[in-house]
Amino acid sequence: MSARRRQRRAAAEEAEEEEEAAEEGGSDKEEDLEKRLCELDLRSDLDVPDIPPPTDSTPEILKRALSGLSARWKNWWIRGILSLAMISGFFLVIYLGSFMLMLLVLSIQVKCYHEIITIGYRVYHSYDLPWFRSLSWYFLLCVNYFFYGETVADYFATFVQRREQLQFLIRYHRFISFALYLTGFCMFVLSLVKKHYRLQFYMFAWTHVTLLITVTQSHLVIQNLFEGMIWFLVPISSVICNDIAAYIFGFFFGKTPLIKLSPKKTWEGFIGGFFSTVVFGFIFSYFLAQHQYFVCPVEYNSETNRFVTECEPSELFQIKKYPLPPVFQAVLGWETVNMYPFQLHSIALSTFASLIGPFGGFFASGFKRAFKIKDFADTIPGHGGIMDRFDCQYLMATFVHVYITSFIRGPNPSKLLKQLLILQPEQQLSVYKTLKSHLIEKGILQPSLRV
Amino acid sequence: MSGTGMGDLRQRHGREPAAARDSEDKESESENKLDGETASDSESKSEFGGSPPVPTSDDTPEVLNRALSNLSSRWKNWWVRGILTLAMITFFFIIIYLGPMVLMTIVMCVQIKCFHEIITIGYNVYHSYDLPWFRTLSWYFLLCVNYFFYGETVTDYFFTLVQREEPLRILSKYHRFISFTLYLTGFCMFVLSLVKKHYRLQFYMFGWTHVTLLIVVTQSHLIIHNLFEGMIWFIVPISCVICNDIMAYMFGFFFGRTPLIKLSPKKTWEGFIGGFFATVLFGLLLSYVMSGYRCFTCPVEFNNDTNSFTVDCEPSELFQLQEYNIPVVLQSVVGWKTVRMYPFQIHSIALSTFASLIGPFGGFFASGFKRAFKIKDFANTIPGHGGIMDRFDCQYLMATFVNVYIASFIRGPNPSKLIQQFLTLRPDQQLHIFNTLKAHLVDRGILGSLEDA
């Protein structure tokens, strides 16, 4: 059975190769390389199992409603309806608050991780080694524990101070996380089975790279969220808007292909998407910046045991007058304009979302071609897996985080205070003296007062 | 010459007796005939049939070859390893003598060499020399990650120096952003370099590069952090791992009987346990000797006036002799009631225990890796020992452990770093923190009713 399947695949592959060779007039060198690649485990096409036909997970109700239309429009409608459903779900979760958002991000992270690991299993036929699934999930748990511990300790400081057991966990958090990770590492080493070394190492590396991509990004998303929901909403919306706008521009005006990796992308879509995303980000942040709910850092109120977003809006979110450069003055007829400073930052975010964000999409396209899969999974009808929707967000979360730490805020004062209080008394005293002299120097503190 | 070279080759690298190796090959081939589906095995056959294993060159220096030409091959191997071991240990001492700056440079060189070795293995496995972009991209990523980590270290420890020079100040203020931009450039170059027929290969190399960076570069930077805590935190862990290696080998050589793990057939339980006790003892003695010297126990600081590293300080209480009561059990054995030790020696027991019990797992990991990719050694840099990675494989986890240990149990946050963060806050935040700190100090009685203490 398997031998026949292989032969069939081999025959199909050969036919495909011949076709390609005839088309491109492939050089000898390329063929040699291909042959050598076929020797090792890079027998890319023989190794990858038949992709199971994508299960049609479109709900019945949609199928009946759209049964009259042609296939192309049917696909368009399914995608459209699901997009609307996702966007509405997104708004609903925003309304429900920060905690629900955190849970949502966590669930998406777990699902993305699951999708990528499943691809790895299929590529390497490693379902026969059940240790891997346990180990992969265990590593996911460890890394999440580590990251959540670091964030939780900062933001829930008051909550944590009250409970003894949590105190212990927080103080030795790094050590505990490291011990947990080490246990996983030792289990991996002990689970090495004589004939499957290479496979096991591949899965180990695959797991770690996946963790690096999905878990770190999701935690940066949550940290951005805690800065203020606007730092979470505007970047994600910009990426989504860029996706949609580039698709629409490409649909109507698309002519010049952009990159070989994704033949459906066009330069017209790219540039049109860029401008529309910048305009969208600009307008969207104008609306969001008016509400405290979006603008204030998320804080945990220990009395009410809930998240609160109430504060004095920082100067980023207070309207200022900006003089327009003469170029725009002639066009628009105004001399000054009232904007939020945040809108200028939103231009930077939208620019990144339109110019560099697509590289994340190309990366995922290349990945899918490399492993010969059409979609990451079949979770969302018409769209593919969760990863397919989030591939452009990869870099966005990191960029926003780096942007915030570099340009917006300095270190977190309460965290700094917490660290100061842990120091040894002599150290505290010397720090106190240094700070005092600094403050006096800058005139913030009056030297003559008996402080 | 080449004839004897090849003979040496086969004998020197015959860690397992040649008969065992042959039988292993036959076994794997017969298994291949039974089930052809698993990806891991199917290529072993073709690899042995097709491309030969990476030829290892005999680069024992001439002088050694001549000096040892009379001995039998087994003792010759032993002598070559022994001499090289002594050479490496002497080199280690020289570097310690030369000071922290040289140590940092050596750590960096070792890191680059390890990275190069692992990447070269990746190239050999994937025949990817034909895609020259990879070499460039791999080195570029190494540069980016090193830039990021060194920038963070430099910003922490050379704070005043950085503040003085204008370009350095800007670089350090926007350091994360600059590093991220550099990394992004590499990422985009990678995406643009994807070539139609070689997607999978390229993704493999990308993954390989990143995992290697994760292992090699982070460990080396943690080592440098440990170094800055005090050279003793650098020397004792590394010496414990080396001692454990040597002692386990000796105990195994003389008393070894029960094999420890299938991965490394030469390791034995006797070696493991003997190595454990010997390492703990060695750690205790070494830390006793070292704790007496300031140059080892003091944190490394950069002196702005002399523009050099100084190790001069008041030794912390970890490095001051204290009287400890010996538990009753040992009292009868040793005959003393109390013993004067440095508290650091208690910590050294923890470090040695980790080095002996968990450190070897790093070695097993490397052995598994070598078996998975069918290589004998990582490279041939050191005659008789293999590559640099072969020597440092047990150190993988040690550096992280020491760093986590220090952060959790020894010291709190770094005061100068806190001051530095303080200075970037807004004035109202600064005032708020200052007042809170003052209230705290007054509360604790550290700051009495003194006006300006």
Automatic annotation (TrEMBL), chain A:
Keyword Membrane listed: yes
Q: Which InterPro entries match?
A: PC_trans (IPR000374), PC_Trfase_euk (IPR016720)
Keywords on record: Lipid biosynthesis, Lipid metabolism, Membrane, Nucleotidyltransferase, Phospholipid biosynthesis, Phospholipid metabolism, Transferase, Transmembrane, Transmembrane helix
Q: What is its main location?
A: membrane
Q: Which reaction does it catalyse?
A: 1,2-di-(9Z,12Z-octadecadienoyl)-sn-glycero-3-phosphate + CTP + H(+) = 1,2-di-(9Z,12Z-octadecadienoyl)-sn-glycero-3-cytidine-5'-diphosphate + diphosphate; 1-octadecanoyl-2-(9Z-octadecenoyl)-sn-glycero-3-phosphate + CTP + H(+) = 1-octadecanoyl-2-(9Z-octadecenoyl)-sn-glycero-3-cytidine-5'-diphosphate + diphosphate; 1,2-di-(9Z-octadecenoyl)-sn-glycero-3-phosphate + CTP + H(+) = 1,2-di-(9Z-octadecenoyl)-sn-glycero-3-cytidine-5'-diphosphate + diphosphate; 1,2-di-(5Z,8Z,11Z,14Z)-eicosatetraenoyl-sn-glycero-3-phosphate + CTP + H(+) = 1,2-di-(5Z,8Z,11Z,14Z-eicosatetraenoyl)-sn-glycero-3-cytidine-5'-diphosphate + diphosphate
List cellular component terms (GO).
Answer: endoplasmic reticulum membrane
Tell me, what is one Gene Ontology molecular-function annotation carried by this entry? phosphatidate cytidylyltransferase activity
Q: How does it sit in the membrane?
A: Multi-pass membrane protein
Bias class Acidic residues marks the residues at: 13-25
Q: Function of this protein?
A: Catalyzes the conversion of phosphatidic acid (PA) to CDP-diacylglycerol (CDP-DAG), an essential intermediate in the synthesis of phosphatidylglycerol, cardiolipin and phosphatidylinositol.
* Recorded family membership: Belongs to the CDS family.
Protein name in UniProt:
Phosphatidate cytidylyltransferase
Q: What species is this protein from?
A: Melopsittacus undulatus
Automatic annotation (TrEMBL), chain B:
Q: Which UniProt keywords apply?
A: Lipid biosynthesis, Lipid metabolism, Membrane, Nucleotidyltransferase, Phospholipid biosynthesis, Phospholipid metabolism, Transferase, Transmembrane, Transmembrane helix
According to UniProt, this protein's pathway is:
Lipid metabolism; Phospholipid metabolism; CDP-diacylglycerol biosynthesis; CDP-diacylglycerol from sn-glycerol 3-phosphate: step 3/3
Where does this polypeptide localize?
A: Membrane
**Where does the chain cross the membrane?**
133-150, 177-195, 202-224, 230-256, 268-290, 344-366
- Per its UniProt record, what PROSITE patterns does this chain match? CDS
Q: Is Nucleotidyltransferase a UniProt keyword of this protein?
A: yes
Q: Tell me, which GO biological process terms does this entry list?
A: CDP-diacylglycerol biosynthetic process
Q: What GO terms fall under cellular component here?
A: endoplasmic reticulum membrane
Gene Ontology molecular function:
phosphatidate cytidylyltransferase activity
Tell me how this protein sits in the membrane. Multi-pass membrane protein
Q: Where is the composition biased (Basic and acidic residues)?
A: 9-46
- Family recorded in the similarity comment: Belongs to the CDS family.
Q: What is this protein called?
A: Phosphatidate cytidylyltransferase
Recorded name of the encoding gene: LOC101868289
